[in-house]
UniProtKB/TrEMBL annotation:
It catalyses: apo-[ACP] + CoA = holo-[ACP] + adenosine 3',5'-bisphosphate + H(+). This is Holo-[acyl-carrier-protein] synthase. Its EC number is 2.7.8.7. Belongs to the P-Pant transferase superfamily. Gsp/Sfp/HetI/AcpT family. Belongs to the P-Pant transferase superfamily. AcpS family.
Length: 120
């Protein structure tokens, strides 16, 4: 049974501007495992990854029904890429299954999170 669905679209340029203004932005958004993947990327691919993680976490918070804030922080959610590049949610404050999808253009990142009851 579907428990929640969330989508988000983020402008990559907006994330780039945040990163330029606040170099600690990466530490706020990414968990240590995500940072490890991020550090292996360069240029536009690194920026797409960071924007994608921001957007995935926003999508999760919408599906979960809380938004990012006091109940759920960016560090409470972890999404790493598997060997094929698919986003896998490895940490979240939800006991069921979490499905993630991310896509991007040169300008935007769009993500979707689907929360599914673990008994289904």
């Amino acid at each position: 049974m579907i428990k929640g669905i969330g989508i988000d679209i983020t402008e990559i340029k907006r994330i780039q501007e945040m990163l330029q203004k606040h170099p600690q932005f990466v530490n706020k958004i990414l968990t240590p495992a995500e940072q490890k993947q991020y550090e292996g990327l360069n240029g536009s691919r690194a920026l797409e990854y960071l924007a994608g993680r921001w957007s995935l976490k926003e999508s999760f918070s919408k599906a979960y029904g809380t938004g990012i804030g006091s109940e759920v922080s960016f560090q409470d959610i972890e999404v790493v890429d598997n060997q094929l590049g698919a986003p896998i949610v490895t940490k979240a404050p939800f006991a069921g299954r979490v499905h993630a999808s991310v896509s991007h253009t040169a300008v935007n990142v769009i993500t979707e999170i689907l929360l599914e009851d673990k008994n289904d």
